[in-house]
Amino acid sequence: MKILVISGFLGAGKTTFIKQLCRKCGRNIAVMENEYGEVGIDKTLLLQDGGVNIWELTEGCICCSVKSDFASSILTIANSLDPEYLIVEPTGVGKLSRVLENIRMIMYERIQLLEPVTILDPGSFRHYLERYGEIYADQIYAAKRILLSKGDLGVPADIGSVLEELRRMNPEAELETEHYSRKPDNWWQALLQAESGAAEREAAGDGIRLYRKEEEPELENISFTEAFLSGPEQLPLFLEELVRGAYGEIIRAKGFIRCGAAALRFDVADRRYSITGGEEMAKPCCVFIGSGIRRNALRELLFPGIRPEGEKRPSIRIGYPGGRTPPL
Question: Residue 235: is its pLDDT beyond 60?
Answer without folding.
Answer: yes
